[in-house]
Every structure is written in structure tokens, then in C-alpha cells.
Amino acid sequence: PLCVSPAADPAVISPQDPTLLIGSSLVATCTVSPDFPLKAEDLYWTLNGRRLPAASYAALGPSTLSVALARLNGSRQQSGDNLVCHSRDGGILAGSCLYVGLPPEKPVNITCWSKNMKDLTCKWAPGTEGETFLHTNYTLKYKRRWYGQDNTCQEYHTAGTYSCHIPKDLALFTPYEIWVEASNRLGVAVSDVVMLDILDVVTTDPPSDVHVSRVGDLEDQLSVRWSSPPALKDFLFQAKYQIQYRVEDSSEWKVVDDVGNQTSCRLAGLRPGTVYFVQVRCNPFSIYGSKKVGIWSDWSNPTAASTPRSERAAGGCDPKGGEQNTTLRRELKQFFGWVKKHAYGCSNLGIKLYDQWRVWLQKSHKTRNQVGKEP
Amino acid sequence: SPTGDSWGIFTFLCAALCNLPALPALNCSEELGAGQSIQQTYDLTRYLEHQLRTLAGTYLNYLGPPFNEPDFNPPRMARAERVPSATVDLDLWRGLTDNARLAANYRAYSRLLCYLRVLDGQVGTAELRHRLAHFCASLQGLVLSIGGVMSSLGYPLPAGPAGPPAPPGAHAAPNDFLKKMDDFWLLKELQTWLWRSAKDFNRLKKKVPPAVVTLRLEARGF
């Protein structure tokens, strides 16, 4: 095949894509290629789309124009500031990306947890309160104290931006040293080393099979039952549990703290004829006799149930029974799941939208009942 | 292959019948398959067009001014010719056979997908990487969808690029600013292609169904 030489770039900028500290100054030059009939006086500069004042230009040769930039601010975008050399009619001849910023600061607040003693996830916070203005890379490293080489964590962003997940090959009953290195174009910073034993930071899955049911005809009580998380059943540990519950259209959770080691609990003092959402979580403390408190699991998926309605007619009652509501909810959830899979453009449809509609419905019911109705 | 007047009449009758709305006795679901997947492909291009608007907005803001200015129109450097161009002479476009029309789309999106994936590996912010990954997945779906339409119409899929794949850094821009220009043109071409594909598939929608029914019945060996 015929070899076609690539068209020469119209001009060359120097320096090309430099990295600079905030507050530094820079003199850049634009030299037009000999194939192009342009002179220094035919050129002008822009930085991030804004024309730079001619007072800062200087012609260094017949086809070379320079520009002086003083006391540079941090880059407007992490991809670099766009310094562009133009011909008189606005055409772009060449460009250079300026990376202006600060070196990183030591990452801080490293916290880690292990799911069922099988893995380790750590998160941290960047040291800088302000910005470095440059893209900063974080690397989590770990090693067994006293022996072993440094290992590098590979799976990032598993629990937020500044997090990493170590999925395997972790030893128990041995302290680990963990630290985070931050690096950008201007330098490197290393966090303090954190020392921990996997057994001291264990968490587990939320309790399974959470069931909430009525207690006979009692209007103000619900009974909650659950199973201890299966993953840790072979290990010696005591579990603590916590329950939280809220009324359907409220966002305030009530927490029951002193559940201890049991797998059932009765909630009392509830409102009759109301739908409640209940969640349970677990803390596997004292694994293998470790004295430290473990880490609370995530909350179980909310389970809904309703207290029986009292015989007195309360104002503004939803005519449908509470149990019918939970079946309806369940069906709707399944329907929306199906819709999401099989139809494009319906992604906003979902159980959350239905819940919002219910809240709106109850609110509008209340106002309707208040206006113009006799007590 | 079967020949004869009775066969021709039978085929014609079936074609006419299958175009009626509800016909439970004759299992027309596969025969209408190509028509349905053309519609789906058309819908997918509209969806991608919509997704691209958000992605391009975010990405151009990441590149910074002047790339995100509405009237930005940089020179199309010779190196940008690697990205397949959607613009084509109108008469040429009208005269394309179904096979050529589909093949042009298939080839273009396969190449564009390649370039987009390279982009994904280099881009800075987590939000952008996430959006890009999502878009690439949808674009992959479009390529598969077009391939499906071609197969159901009996057309062979276009062959991949000849020769061994170029090493990763082979076509990389020589500096960061030129790379930003490449990225800008990649997004522009994607936009133009999606706009053009909607018209391509609209055209195909009107032409395909009757011919497909006949083809399918013959393949069944009636």
C-alpha cells in the first residue's frame, strides 16, 4: 500500500503538557511550522477558552510567539488547563495541557473490616481538605508484621471512592500492617501505618429470615423473629442484635438496643392499624475469644407488617386493610422488577415511586379530611 | 429447493395471511422476528442518542473549555480519519442495499466501541468511568442487535479488520492536547452515527417484513 506521510502539525508549543506547582510562572512559545505562511504577528493565545492579553506576548522570531503566565492558579479541570495557540482567524494551530496543582497530603482515617473473616475491605480519607487540582492515585498496601513482603490491593472503589477490597489469602491470628500511598504528578505521600488483626474487625451478613407478625389480637404489639447469620455458625462467637423500626410514612427510626443474644423480640407500644417497617442487624463480638467488639452488619432488608386496627373508627383511615397492603406491595415490587428487565425507558418506575405515591396519597387524604368535613 | 406454481401460490398466500394482525394457527412469531428486531435496534439507537447527550456533556466538561463550548469547531486533523465517518452523499445513502446499509452500521459501531473502550481505561474521574462503562455496554448491545438483524435476514457479518490487531499504543495521540481533540471527534462521530442510524433503521423498517416471511418459510422446508 502507498505510504502517505501524515500532514505536519501546523505549529509546535513548548513546553508540551508541563506539570507546575500552584503560584509558579511559565513562559510558553508557539512556533509555526515552515509549511505554513503565518508570522508571529498573526498569532494569539487563549487559556481555557479566554484570550490572553497581547501585553503578555513577545515575538521571539519571525514565526515564534511567546506568552508569559504569572502566578498560576490550580488547574480548572483535572484533565489540564488548555493553553492554545491560534491563527488570526481563530483557527487552532496547537495546544498544550497545563497541570497546575499541589503534591498530595498523607491519607488519613484508615478503617477496615472483614466479612466473615474471609476478606478485608479498607477505606480512608484524602489528606487535603482543599484540592490538589491534579488527579491523585491511591494505592493500599499491606503486609504481615515481622515477615512477608508488601502486597498491593487491586480492587478499588468497592465501598466508596476511597476504598479497596482484599478478597483472599489473609491469615488469622497475625497482625497486619496496612497503609495508603497517594501519588500525583507532583509527588507522593504515605499515610501512617495501621496495625490490626483480622479477628478484631469482623462483621457478618445481616440476619436472615426476618419475620414480623402480629401477636394475636394485640393492637400495639408485633413479634419479630430471625435466624443468626449462617456464615459464622461454625465459629465460636456470641452475637448481639439490634432492631430498628419505623412507621410506614415516617423517616424516623426507633432503635431497640438491648436485644442481646436471642433471635426473637417483641415490639410493644405501637400504634394500632399501622404498617411498620422493621430491620435487624448483627454484631459478631468475641470471635475466637477476641475481646474486641465486632462490627455491626448491614441492616436486613426491611420487612413490613401491620398492627391490628382497633374497633373505634380512627379519622382518615385507609379503607384497605394493612395485610392487603403488604401483599399489594410485594406484587407491585415483582411487577416493577419485571418491567425493568423487559422494557426500555421505564427505569424510573419502581417500588420507590409507588412508596412516594402512597405518602402523597396519605398526605392528600389528611388535607381532604381536614377541609370541610364535620367531626 | 422446491419449485413450481403451487409452491409460489402457497408462499404468496402465507405472506398475505401473516401480514394480518392475529393468526394463532400459523406460528408467525419467528417470521416476524426480523421486523421486531429492526424495531428494537431502532429503539436502541434512540436510547443511545439520549445517553450520549449526558455522557458527552460530562466528558466535554472534563476536557474543559474550549472543548465544551457550543460553537467549538476544531480542525479535523488527518489522524482523525481513523474514526469512521457517518456523513455520506445523499444519493449514495439512498441507493444502499439493505446488506450494505446494515454492514456500514455494524462496522462503524464495532470500531467506535473499540476506541471508546480505550478511552475508558484512561479517563480520570470515577463518575466518568462509570458513565463510559455503561455506555460501552449499551453500544455493545447495539452491535449485537445489528448482527442479529443481519443474521435473521441471511446476510453474513462483516469480517473483522485484516491482519493482527495493532499494539495498544500504536495510534495514540503524541500529546495530551491532541488526545483531547481525538476524544472530541470520537464523541462527535458517535453523535452523527446515532443520528444517521435512526434514519437507516427507519428505512429498513418499511422495507423488510414481506420479503422476510417468504425467506423463512422456504428455510422451514414446507
Automatic annotation (TrEMBL), chain A:
<comment type="similarity">
    <text>Belongs to the type I cytokine receptor family. Type 3 subfamily.</text>
</comment>
<feature type="domain" description="Ig-like">
    <location>
        <begin position="10"/>
        <end position="85"/>
    </location>
</feature>
<keyword id="KW-0964">Secreted</keyword>
<feature type="domain" description="Fibronectin type-III">
    <location>
        <begin position="206"/>
        <end position="310"/>
    </location>
</feature>
<dbReference type="InterPro" id="IPR036179">
    <property type="entry name" value="Ig-like_dom_sf"/>
</dbReference>
<feature type="domain" description="Fibronectin type-III">
    <location>
        <begin position="106"/>
        <end position="201"/>
    </location>
</feature>
<feature type="region of interest" description="Disordered">
    <location>
        <begin position="303"/>
        <end position="324"/>
    </location>
</feature>
<dbReference type="InterPro" id="IPR050379">
    <property type="entry name" value="Type-I_Cytokine_Rcpt"/>
</dbReference>
<dbReference type="InterPro" id="IPR003961">
    <property type="entry name" value="FN3_dom"/>
</dbReference>
<dbReference type="GO" id="GO:0004896">
    <property type="term" value="F:cytokine receptor activity"/>
</dbReference>
<dbReference type="Pfam" id="PF00041">
    <property type="entry name" value="fn3"/>
</dbReference>
<keyword id="KW-0325">Glycoprotein</keyword>
<dbReference type="GO" id="GO:0043235">
    <property type="term" value="C:receptor complex"/>
</dbReference>
<dbReference type="GO" id="GO:0019955">
    <property type="term" value="F:cytokine binding"/>
</dbReference>
<dbReference type="InterPro" id="IPR007110">
    <property type="entry name" value="Ig-like_dom"/>
</dbReference>
<dbReference type="InterPro" id="IPR015152">
    <property type="entry name" value="Growth/epo_recpt_lig-bind"/>
</dbReference>
<dbReference type="InterPro" id="IPR013783">
    <property type="entry name" value="Ig-like_fold"/>
</dbReference>
<dbReference type="GO" id="GO:0097058">
    <property type="term" value="C:CRLF-CLCF1 complex"/>
</dbReference>
<dbReference type="GO" id="GO:0043524">
    <property type="term" value="P:negative regulation of neuron apoptotic process"/>
</dbReference>
<keyword id="KW-0675">Receptor</keyword>
<keyword id="KW-0732">Signal</keyword>
<dbReference type="GO" id="GO:0009897">
    <property type="term" value="C:external side of plasma membrane"/>
</dbReference>
TrEMBL record, chain B:
<comment type="subunit">
    <text>Forms a heteromeric complex with cardiotrophin-like cytokine CRLF1/CLF-1; the CRLF1-CLCF1 complex is a ligand for the ciliary neurotrophic factor receptor/CNTFR. The CRLF1-CLCF1 heterodimer binds SORL1 (via N-terminal ectodomain); within this complex, the interaction is mediated predominantly by the CRLF1 moiety. The tripartite signaling complex formed by CRLF1, CLCF1 and CNTFR also binds SORL1.</text>
</comment>
<dbReference type="InterPro" id="IPR009079">
    <property type="entry name" value="4_helix_cytokine-like_core"/>
</dbReference>
<dbReference type="GO" id="GO:0005615">
    <property type="term" value="C:extracellular space"/>
</dbReference>
<keyword id="KW-0325">Glycoprotein</keyword>
<dbReference type="GO" id="GO:0005125">
    <property type="term" value="F:cytokine activity"/>
</dbReference>
<dbReference type="GO" id="GO:0030890">
    <property type="term" value="P:positive regulation of B cell proliferation"/>
</dbReference>
<dbReference type="GO" id="GO:0097059">
    <property type="term" value="C:CNTFR-CLCF1 complex"/>
</dbReference>
<dbReference type="Pfam" id="PF06875">
    <property type="entry name" value="PRF"/>
</dbReference>
<keyword id="KW-0964">Secreted</keyword>
<comment type="function">
    <text>In complex with CRLF1, forms a heterodimeric neurotropic cytokine that plays a crucial role during neuronal development. Also stimulates B-cells. Binds to and activates the ILST/gp130 receptor.</text>
</comment>
<feature type="signal peptide">
    <location>
        <begin position="1"/>
        <end position="25"/>
    </location>
</feature>
<keyword id="KW-0202">Cytokine</keyword>
<comment type="similarity">
    <text>Belongs to the IL-6 superfamily.</text>
</comment>
<dbReference type="GO" id="GO:0007259">
    <property type="term" value="P:cell surface receptor signaling pathway via JAK-STAT"/>
</dbReference>
<dbReference type="InterPro" id="IPR010681">
    <property type="entry name" value="PRF/CT"/>
</dbReference>
<dbReference type="GO" id="GO:0097058">
    <property type="term" value="C:CRLF-CLCF1 complex"/>
</dbReference>
<protein>
    <recommendedName>
        <fullName>Cardiotrophin-like cytokine factor 1</fullName>
    </recommendedName>
</protein>
<keyword id="KW-0732">Signal</keyword>
